[in-house]
């Protein structure tokens, strides 16, 4: 297939637009957003915006063009399919919808490693969306140079254009359509900015494995000795809190690749959740929300223009988008070496999993494919007990290929690097939610430090009879009883029942992966044990 001419597409948008502003910096974009009534200043000078009906992603409205490249590669059980001819109509109509509008063009970089880069151009009629993506991706000449070999990608962002299901093959008026063969994305019918960010990640996740790169929905930091650590975890597990360590510069907080020489950030910014944000718990993120150029998305302001981070009347998915450069300690060049430590975080509200466990490469792949955490009871009417949540690779909505492809890549990387893999539970002990208590953050930090500094290498461990992983018997500064969850329960038999229930939830979730569907989470039942 001949290489697609992205500049022709971008020029066709420009000829229809009333004007095109190219690569405006933050002050100009903020001024345009305020002048256009797109947002308003907070008392601290950040830009406050709202996204209307859509305050989160629309996964059911996301489609991949089904063509010769994607037909046999995409995991269609997890992705909607759009026929090429429908996409062509959608693209043509989206381009036509720019007619007479003021368009903001941003030419940015995705990927700090020049061997695995994308030259991403976002075309949007919204100044605040242009500012958002400028904050989130890598800005050229800010520590990362654009490689001449970078793949071109174009995002056609028309948030107020309404798709026609009969004409465009969409589900409704909202659509996020990705043409993987030409690296074109059309986003229509939603103001939620996260769709732009995650579309770039989805393009990367499709192509990266072909180059032997493992795409990862994780945060990463690096120690004083150059030891890189990865942190995987779903919402509420403490990924952002634990990876933001004053002693370990941050590589990035969300999207990375693991290539030949180590880890690199796909982005140049942070899209941090702000619900219940406080200066005491997360001072760096809190400070970033008070700076000029930061975009606060769906954050309620009080009568004085101050953010009310505890107010979730618009959504619990309140966000702040800001460049990494505003943080005090960031890894130079957005990259780190080959990981020494890989951490899977879970908040087990069932109170079953130990606060830390060592995983073999096979067990690491199992937990990577499972992507487990648990939501607490009481979040929905009628929910009286914890609800297990599984998201393959800790980011299933953004992984176009079958999860086992990413799992095999991870196993190979772990074996080649010798990286230690750990499961850390930041959830409950002494019983499930409502009975037990949340594992205290001080203990979790001590456990994490022990995993990172290597002090647990050679430590005495027991093998969990049900799940098969090894659990340290002692960790300095941590109560020994905490390391054996069954011992923290007043009713040991109740713990056993809960543990069997959780193991069965793992087993049933794993059935969707086909091969290994009969696997069970423990050595007796032949799952994930060497």
From TrEMBL:
Q: Could you tell me which Gene3D superfamilies the record lists for this protein?
A: 3.90.228.20, Phosphoenolpyruvate Carboxykinase, domain 1, Phosphoenolpyruvate Carboxykinase, domain 2
Residues binding substrate are 57, 192, 198, 319
Q: Which UniProt keywords apply?
A: ATP-binding, Cytoplasm, Decarboxylase, Gluconeogenesis, Lyase, Manganese, Metal-binding, Nucleotide-binding
SUPFAM superfamilies per record: PEP carboxykinase N-terminal domain (SSF68923), PEP carboxykinase-like (SSF53795)
Task: Report a single Gene Ontology molecular function.
Answer: phosphoenolpyruvate carboxykinase (ATP) activity
What's its catalytic activity? oxaloacetate + ATP = phosphoenolpyruvate + ADP + CO2
Family the entry assigns: Belongs to the phosphoenolpyruvate carboxykinase (ATP) family.
Record's protein name: Phosphoenolpyruvate carboxykinase (ATP)
Biological source species:
Devosia albogilva
What lineage does the source organism belong to? Bacteria, Pseudomonadati, Pseudomonadota, Alphaproteobacteria, Hyphomicrobiales
């Amino acid at each position: 297939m001949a290489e697609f001419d992205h500049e022709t597409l971008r020029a066709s948008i420009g000829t229809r637009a009333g004007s095109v502003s190219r690569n405006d910096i933050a002050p100009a974009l903020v001024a345009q957003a305020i002048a256009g009534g797109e947002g308003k200043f907070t008392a601290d000078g950040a830009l406050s915006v709202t996204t209307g009906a859509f305050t989160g992603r629309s996964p059911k409205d996301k489609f991949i063009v089904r063509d010769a490249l994607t037909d046999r590669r995409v995991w269609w059980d997890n992705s909607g399919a759009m026929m090429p001819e429908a996409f062509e109509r959608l693209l043509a109509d989206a381009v036509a919808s720019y007619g007479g509008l003021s368009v903001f063009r941003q030419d940015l970089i995705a990927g700090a490693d020049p061997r695995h880069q994308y030259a991403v151009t976002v075309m949007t009629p919204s100044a605040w969306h242009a500012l958002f993506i400028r904050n989130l991706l890598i800005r050229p000449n800010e520590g990362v140079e654009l490689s001449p070999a970078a793949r071109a990608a174009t995002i056609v962002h028309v948030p107020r254009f309404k798709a026609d299901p009969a004409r465009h093959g969409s589900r409704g008026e909202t659509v996020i359509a990705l043409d993987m063969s030409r690296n074109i994305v059309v986003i229509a019918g939603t103001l939620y900015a996260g769709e732009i960010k995650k579309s770039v990640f989805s393009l990367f996740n499709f192509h990266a494995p072909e180059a032997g790169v493992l795409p990862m929905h994780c945060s990463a930091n690096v120690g004083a000795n150059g030891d890189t650590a990865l942190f995987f975890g779903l919402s509420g597990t403490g990924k952002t809190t634990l990876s933001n360590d004053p002693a370990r510069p941050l590589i990035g907080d969300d999207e990375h690749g693991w290539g030949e020489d180590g880890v690199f950030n796909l982005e140049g910014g942070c899209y941090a959740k702000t619900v219940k944000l406080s200066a005491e718990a997360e001072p760096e993120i809190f400070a970033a929300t008070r700076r000029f150029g930061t975009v606060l998305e769906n954050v309620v302001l009080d009568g004085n223009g101050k953010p009310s981070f505890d107010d979730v009347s618009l959504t619990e998915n309140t966000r702040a988008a800001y460049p990494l450069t505003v943080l005090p300690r960031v890894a130079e060049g957005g990259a780190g070496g080959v990981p020494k430590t890989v951490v899977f975080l879970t908040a087990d509200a069932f109170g079953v999993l130990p606060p830390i466990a060592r995983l073999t490469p096979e067990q690491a792949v199992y937990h990577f494919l499972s992507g487990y955490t648990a939501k607490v009871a009481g979040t929905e009417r009628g929910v009286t007990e914890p609800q297990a949540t599984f998201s393959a690779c800790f980011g299933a909505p953004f992984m176009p290929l079958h999860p086992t492809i990413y799992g095999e890549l991870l196993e190979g990387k772990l074996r080649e690097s010798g990286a230690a893999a750990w499961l850390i539970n930041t959830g409950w002990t002494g019983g499930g939610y409502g009975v037990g208590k949340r594992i205290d953050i001080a203990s979790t930090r001590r456990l994490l430090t022990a995993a990172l500094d290597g002090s647990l290498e050679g430590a005495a461990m027991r093998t969990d009879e049900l799940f098969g992983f090894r659990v340290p018997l002692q960790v300095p500064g941590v109560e020994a009883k905490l390391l054996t969850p069954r011992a923290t329960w007043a009713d040991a038999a109740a713990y056993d029942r809960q543990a069997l229930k959780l193991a069965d939830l793992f087993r049933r979730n794993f059935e969707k992966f086909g091969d290994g569907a009969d696997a069970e989470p423990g050595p007796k039942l032949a799952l994930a044990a060497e």
